[in-house]
Amino acid sequence: MKRTIVTLLPLLLWLALTAQAEVQEHLQEQYYDLQVASGQSLSRALNQASPIRQNGQIYHAYTRWQVQWKFWWREQRDGRCQIDLTRTQLNATITLPRLGGGDAQQRQRFEQYLGALREHELGHYRIGQAAAAEIDAALLQTPEYPSCAELQQQANRRANAILQRHAEQERQYDQQTGHGRSQGAWLTE
């Protein structure tokens, strides 16, 4: 048993000294109420009920994600700085409609639509996940800098560039899917 401890000690020491990362994710869904009368158009009812409006457009669902990061560094005697630990957090909220009323056919159609709508919004969330993971990895891979101030500036610059790239990916995702239309998130009525 003593031999195992001696063998593991250098490994544990090495692990403690290497840079460490941590990505935390928090996803929640929130709903707005949709009341539909029997025979009423689901599409029209959704357009009236939706609180999601951007650039003059009405949307039936929305995903908002935000990536926050922190990093800690080790400063050498000569002033050089290297990141030791990161903590990256992804917080996201998906807003979806919740149906009240309607007949059996409307409820069935709504459930199909809602499934496709949720899947589209999860695509936005996955882009946020990718951004968080890439930011965390980029921070850990930030090279050593001559000063901690320079390290901090360069690490934040890298993270913000990644955020911008993923924001553009979201725009492209909506464009390619027609805001979910090609994924089945479309009502013809």
From TrEMBL:
The organism of origin for this protein: Ectopseudomonas alcaliphila
Protein name (database record): DUF922 domain-containing protein
Coiled coil residues, start to end: none
Matching InterPro entries: DUF922
Keywords, alphabetical: Hydrolase, Protease, Signal
Entry's Gene Ontology molecular function annotations: peptidase activity
Taxonomic superkingdom: Bacteria
Record carries keyword Lipid metabolism: no
Chain segments carrying region Disordered: 166-189
Signal peptide from the UniProt entry: 1-21
GO terms (BP aspect): proteolysis
Keyword Cell membrane: no
